[in-house]
Design a protein that fits this description.
The structure is a single chain. The protein is mainly alpha-helical. Among the domains are: about 150 residues, no CATH class; about 100 residues, Tetratricopeptide repeat domain (Serine Threonine Protein Phosphatase 5, Tetratricopeptide repeat). It has 25 helices and no strands. The radius of gyration is 26 Å and the shape is globular. The N and C termini lie far apart (about 85 Å). It comes from Amorphochlora amoebiformis. This is UDP-N-acetylglucosamine--peptide N-acetylglucosaminyltransferase SPINDLY.
Length: about 525
């Protein structure tokens, strides 16, 4: 309904002739921006209001998610068509707004609202790094604009620059103690990056003294109490968030999910098992609070991921540390149970099908994994990672031709996918097609060297893997010196890779034996 009103207003927009021309254009841009944003919000939240994706409807006892034969093609196909249609409309509206904003900025570069809206549009277009660069530049030009500084701080949290983000928020609050957005973001920063729950409570209470109807702050305050173990206060704050959320189109709900996922990742980085489990329990309390209000597919999936994280932590611990907690196998079973519940509620939940496929593949059941990954690519055929997972499952099952077919499909969607190239080359190597494997490994290396992120730890790790695999091909060809050169390249790029170190030792021994 909001979209219809905005579109009508935009079509009928005809300001008085006496209006300044730039002002007229700015008003048109703002209306287009509002229209684009409403469409974007509609597309991103449409799954939560689609049939079968909102409040849980209990499935019958015989309903299962064990194979593709039990799927409902009509639901899947209609969801795919709806999502594609919405995204095309949204992208068109966002591009149109971006073009108008660009013209305005060229004509009058000192309009802060134009720059701010441009940054927000770029962020909404799934380009947070580019948006951060835009805000970096404009904050220097307009250092006293607190809204710009706040948006930059938010993007710095997303860009893994927590210290700079905290500085942004503190600077705003010192100059404007009633800036609600900065107080809210600084409170969240203290929770997820500093684990300073007392200070977070103080900051968030300061914000709520300014505006008691802000659900984001009630959410964050509740989370700080949950992480402390103060469940009564947390429950009361969540109730306040839910009470006020209807005025904010459900945005606080997504904030709660974001924080839960972030805290789960933070827990995995704790050093001791006890610290990890304590942190995981805080996340579980948070997700249980969401579940108590509304049982959805995404809540079940978030809980499943939490159990998988607990399982990984228990497996990495010593037997003495792990003995007082549940077995990793029990955590895996709980994770699968929640994944199946997620799919029963929403059979178009791509991530749930994918996670279920990964889960059963880890147990060695490649046949079931193939079925689940097939469902994942059927619900969202445009994601290369899903095709890569399907290809790996086929490869483990011994279906090499099918594996090759779907990996080529992944590369059609993303020609620079290192994982797809690496898996395809491994497939050729396993079949003895060494020239083809070598060609693809070299392509991997060239792609990584040309990447803008080639110095990142993940890129260096992938580069080392490619050189290691290229060395293994050279060993099969009997070219031991070339293999050693590639292994040394791998070790230089990523010194901590155990397989590279072991291959160097084995090859050195083989070369020594040959010389003797």
């Amino acid at each position: 309904m909001a979209q219809e009103h905005l579109k009508t207003a935009l079509d009928d927009y005809n300001p008085a002739e006496s209006c300044d021309e730039k002002w007229r254009r700015l008003m048109e841009v703002k209306m287009k921006l509002a229209y684009a944003q409403s469409l974007y919000d509609f597309a991103s939240t449409s799954r939560s209001v689609a049939p079968g994706t909102g409040r849980a409807k209990r499935a019958g006892k015989n309903e299962s998610a064990s194979s593709s034969s039990s799927a409902q093609p009509s639901i899947v196909e209609s969801a795919k068509h709806s999502r594609t249609l919405q995204e095309s409309v949204v992208n068109k509206a966002i591009e149109e707004a971006k073009q108008l904003l660009t013209k305005l900025i060229k004509d009058e570069s000192t309009r802060v609202d134009c720059w701010n809206n441009m940054g927000r549009l770029i962020y909404d277009d799934c380009k947070p790094a580019v948006a951060r660069m835009v805000y970096d530049q404009i904050v220097n030009s307009f250092p006293d604009n607190f809204d710009l500084m706040n948006n930059l701080g938010f993007l710095r949290i997303l860009g893994n620059e927590p210290e700079k983000a905290g500085t942004n928020f503190k600077d705003i609050i010192s100059k404007c103690p009633t800036h609600v957005e900065a107080l809210s973001n600084y409170g969240v920063h203290l929770i997820i990056n500093k684990e300073d729950f007392k200070s977070a409570q103080k900051v968030l209470s300061q914000g709520l003294a300014v505006n008691q109807s802000e659900p984001h702050m009630w959410n964050a305050l509740a989370i700080s109490y949950l992480m402390e173990g103060n469940h009564d206060y947390a429950r009361e704050c969540f109730g306040q968030a839910r009470k006020n959320e209807k005025y904010h189109t459900g945005a606080a709900w997504s904030i709660r999910f974001t924080i839960a996922n972030y805290l789960r990742r933070q827990a995995a980085m704790k050093t001791s098992l006890d610290e990890k489990i304590k942190f995981f329990q805080g996340v579980k309390n948070l997700l249980d609070s969401v579940m108590s209000y509304e049982e959805t597919s995404d809540v079940h999936l978030a809980i499943a991921k939490l159990h998988l994280s607990r399982s990984a932590a228990l497996r990495a611990a010593t037997p003495a540390e792990a003995k007082k907690y549940a077995n990793p196998e029990d955590e895996d079973s709980e994770a699968q149970r929640h994944m199946i519940s997620a799919i029963k509620i929403d059979r178009t939940n791509t991530r749930a099908w994918n996670e279920l496929g990964l889960s059963v593949m880890r147990t060695g059941n490649s046949k079931k994994a193939i079925d689940f990954f097939k469902m994942a690519v059927q619900t969202d055929p445009r994601r290369p990672a899903l095709w890569i997972n399907l290809g790996l499952a086929y490869q483990l099952h011994g279906s090499h031709n099918d594996a090759r077919r779907v990996l080529i499909k992944a590369l059609e969607l993303d020609k620079d996918s290192i994982e797809a190239m690496n898996n395809l080359a491994n497939l050729h190597k396993a079949k003895g097609e060494l020239d083809e494997a070598k060609k693809i490994y070299v392509r991997c290396i060239n792609t990584l060297n040309a990447s803008a992120h080639k110095t990142s730890p993940r890129s260096r790790e992938l580069l080392a893997q490619a050189y290691n695999n290229l060395a293994l091909v050279s060993i099969k060809e009997g070219n031991y010196q070339k293999a050693m050169d590639n292994l040394q390249f791998a070790q230089e790029r990523y010194p901590g890779m155990a397989c590279v170190r072991q291959n160097i030792q084995r090859l050195a021994l083989r070369l020594e034996n040959r010389m003797n």
